Fold this sequence. Notes:
The protein has a single domain (79-359), classed as 3-Layer(bba) Sandwich (YerB-like fold), CATH 3.50.90.10. Helix content is 15%, strand content 29%. The chain has five helices and 23 strands. β10 (231-235) and β11 (242-247) form a beta hairpin.
Amino acid sequence: MRPAHSRRHRLQRSGTVVTAVVALLALAGCASETPEAPPPITVTPSVTASREAPPTPEVPVVWPLTGVQTDTLVDRPAVAVKIENSHVARPQSGLNEADMVWETIVDFDVSRLVAVFQSQTPKGIGPIRSVRPMDMAIVAPLGGPLVFSGGQSGILALVPKAGIQGMNNDYGAAGMYRIKSRSAPHNVYGDVPVFMANADANHSSPPPEQFHFARNPAQATAVLQGTDATKVSMHLSSLSDPSWTWDATSGWLRWEGSAKAVVASGDWIHATNVVLVVAKHPASGFHAQNRAVVPTYDLVGEGEALVATGGKTIAATWHKAAQDQPMTLTTADGQDVLLAPGNTWVELVPQGTGSYKVEAPAAG
């Protein structure tokens, strides 16, 4: 028979084992239970509305025919004036104040100019001469008056037909007079402010932009993509061989043959942009003295162009959808050509009989 204390020891050890087993079973039961998920919580984001309006884009105010910025844009029309360019008419007055000047070849191979004024209003410009058929396609897109001194009856009829207000010295239009220092017919001059003041209600609005302009000279298309050039020479007719040379200070400077082209004040004629437009130069059906052919230009359509800006040139294509639509310029990839802000001379080069040449800087 075993002692009593041995039995008590066995019983205690058995109780300990049972307790451990019960504890393990309890833990296993707890582990098998799925814990209860907490209730969902909805969080609403707090958004504070901005009290500041988005910034307004800065669009500079510019003169439509030059792209030059201005603090005060005056509500006035563009006035186109026919200016003589024969050797007896030089030096002329007012050409450096024009926003645009178009050079054309008229009868007898003579060069004649269409000077367009809007941002500046000089007095005493001239000499003013007669109207020609090609003037309509140049002036109609501007929406303002055309100032001239005389013309054939058939050509005069083209002016209102093109929707243009004519101001004819022969009919006593205000603002024109003859000066004593020149002989007739090279002595008709006029004042741009008077011409603007006499524009009728249908021709007194500011003109739409003609060519497109960059914000600043460095962004002009020819400056960014063009080729360096020092001179652009043209053969327009047997009596007209103008050229333009580049000067970093003054821009493009004009020559008539081998002579500097100057205005009456003695200042060299200059341009920020020179645009060469190659276009057909057919007979208009009108005739001058001794049955001489009066030509015109086919300016509706498209054709070859060259743009000179900032001492560089770039080939372009000109486009004009209709007589009363502005001419536009595009690059070879179809992008708009942007001119530098400033005045522009447009040289109409007769296709087939006219030509031009670009000279690059000397190597080295």
